[in-house]
Write a structure and sequence with these properties.
The complex is a heterodimer of chains A (353) and B (170). Chain A folds into two domains: 111 residues, no CATH class; 239 residues, no CATH class. Helix content of chain A is 62%, strand content 10%. The longest helix of chain A has 44 residues. Chain A is globular, with a radius of gyration of 24 Å. Chain A contains eleven helices and eight strands. In chain A, the strands form three sheets. In chain A, strands 1-3-2 form a three-stranded antiparallel β-sheet, with no helix packed on it. Chain B has one domain. The chains are: A mainly alpha (353), B mainly alpha (170). Chains A and B meet through strand 8, helix 4, helix 5, helix 6 and helix 7 of A and helix 1 of B.
Chain lengths: 353, 170
């Protein structure tokens, strides 16, 4: 119980780090606005933003302004709702541009996704270190953890035993920290993405930049530590010679394969989480879209939307876990393939293809 | 199309933050936990193995004990048997001895009786002889006052002696 209050205090402290003034912006409330803009609604939620929109009460947007950091003839740091005062505006894609020239500056702003990334990363570090602290304070030889450290231990043991040891094989300890970090990072951010209100709700693991970074990490882990046999298999695979000389067909395919593997990791995670978010938002949007069609249709459709929304949410919980699991498992398998010794080669290749 | 173009700012922060998170977790988090978990599972495995061994030893000990008890019981039975047979033998021997001794004693008694009888008989015979002589003396003194009578007596005596010798031979 006191862990939950601790978490609450932590979040409150984090909120205090950011400008405490909530932004109450007056927007013109006309008849045209009454129609529901589905496109804006969905892409506003899954995309990035320079402020963290929480809710709109009677036309007042309540959002947390986030710091903008741009390099444009020198460093400029300003709050996102004072953008116009510093000579910047948003373009049609919602990106920060110089109001005078219309050009994109070098933009390192703490956007909604970056903010979410910071929060979730702090949360992740706290969660894992608190588990580690349990081990430091208790004699693990005499007792097993209960409660939260117990859950963490179960997850860590599952990832280690079922995914990493199976996939990587020999020397799995070397890769375990990265793979575990990736698993918990993806899992935690997937879960936070489902939470519809403030600390959650950002579409972080459904953002191509994030999944690209993770995929690049796996790519590096695979290719930096690949053994001789792995590289021989790429540049001089065991196929008829005419496939290699004069036109290096097979090596070309293998080299493309080096990149398609992490690319598939990137797209799989991105697409799954993004699609989940869009589906959920779409189901909720049914309530607003049918508002014009009269109370009877709107009411019945709302009931259906809520039921379907519950189903989708549960499905997304499953997807959150599965995608973290799949990403880690495939990373492990790719790493394992790059470290294979030649004697196991034939059997393994058949099973993976 | 901003959805599928990676944003540089986010990529930058992602790299920085993920690197920090990875560094912290890889240094202070996961290796500690996995190490402890591995140690504990090793301990559990070892304990299970030990328990199995202990169970085996216990079983062996129980069997050994059973075997020892069985042996002791056999030994006991054997000793009891032996004791019983020894007892029987002793009793038998004692009986035999007693019988022999009795027999010997009876024999000796008999012998003694016989000797006594013989002695008694001899004494009686001697006594009788003496008495006879005395009686004869007296008789002789009375009857042998004439020569005729003396001759008659001598004849009679000789006759008598002859018959008694013949009886004795028979």
């Amino acid at each position: 119980m006191h862990r939950i209050t601790g978490l609450g205090i932590l979040l409150a402290a984090l909120l205090l780090l950011f400008p405490p003034t909530l932004r109450a912006e007056e927007t013109p409330h006309t008849e045209a606005d009454a129609s529901f803009d589905l496109n804006h609604y969905i892409f506003g939620h899954i995309g990035d933003a320079y402020d963290w929109h929480i809710t709109t009460v009677r036309g007042h947007h309540i959002s947390i302004p986030l710091p903008c950091i741009v390099f444009d003839n020198g460093l400029h740091v300003f709050s996102s709702h004072k953008m116009a005062e510093h000579g910047y505006t948003l373009n049609e894609n919602g990106k920060l541009v110089n109001a005078a020239t219309g050009k994109r500056p070098f933009d390192l702003s703490i956007t909604k996704n970056v903010c979410s990334l910071i929060l979730s990363s702090i949360l992740l570090v706290v969660l894992v270190l608190s588990t580690a602290r349990w081990y430091r304070r208790h004699d693990a030889m005499k007792e097993a953890p209960r409660g939260f450290p117990g859950v963490m231990e179960m997850l860590i043991t599952m990832v280690t035993d079922d995914i990493i040891k199976e996939g990587v094989g020999k020397d799995w300890e070397k890769y375990a920290p990265y793979l575990l970090t990736a698993f918990f990072f993806i899992f935690l951010n997937n879960l936070l993405g489902i939470v519809p209100f403030f600390p959650g709700g950002a579409n972080l693991t459904g953002n191509i930049a994030v999944t690209m970074f993770l995929a690049v990490c796996t790519f590096l882990a695979v290719n930096l530590f690949g053994n001789k046999h792995y590289y021989k298999d790429i540049f001089w695979p065991e196929v008829p010679t005419w496939l290699k000389v004069p036109l290096p067909l097979m090596p070309l395919i293998e080299i493309i394969g080096m990149f398609t593997k992490p690319f598939s990791l990137m797209v799989r995670l991105f697409a799954n989480i993004l699609a989940g978010h869009i589906m959920l938002l779409g189901v909720v949007a049914v309530v607003f879209i049918t508002a014009k069609l009269g109370p009877a249709i709107n009411g019945s459709m709302s009931v259906i939307a809520v039921l379907f929304g519950v189903f989708m949410d549960i499905l997304e919980l499953l997807v959150a876990f599965i995608q973290a699991y799949v990403f880690t498992m495939l990373s492990s398998v790719f790493i394992g393939l790059s470290r294979q010794e030649p004697e196991h080669e034939h059997k393994q290749i058949e099973t993976t293809k | 199309m901003s959805l599928i173009t990676p944003d540089f700012g986010l990529l930058f922060w992602m790299t920085l933050i993920f690197a920090i998170v990875f560094f912290i977790l890889a240094k202070f988090g996961f290796p500690l936990i996995t190490g402890m978990v591995k140690k504990r599972s090793d301990l559990i495995e070892q304990s299970l193995r030990d328990a199995e061994e202990a169970r085996k030893t216990l079983k062996e000990l129980a069997e050994e004990q059973k075997r020892m008890i069985e042996e002791a019981r056999k030994e006991q039975a054997r000793i009891l048997n032996e004791a019983a047979s020894t007892g029987d033998k002793i009793v038998q021997e004692a009986k035999d001895q007693a019988r022999e001794q009795t027999a010997a004693m009876i024999e000796k008694a008999r012998e003694d009786i016989r000797i006594e009888q013989e002695t008694a008989r001899q004494q009686i015979a001697a006594e009788v002889a003496t008495l006879s002589v005395e009686v004869a003396e007296k008789l002789v003194r009375g009857h042998l006052d004439s020569a005729q009578r003396q001759n008659d007596l001598i004849d009679k005596l000789i006759e008598e002696a002859r018959t008694s010798r013949g009886n004795a031979v028979n």
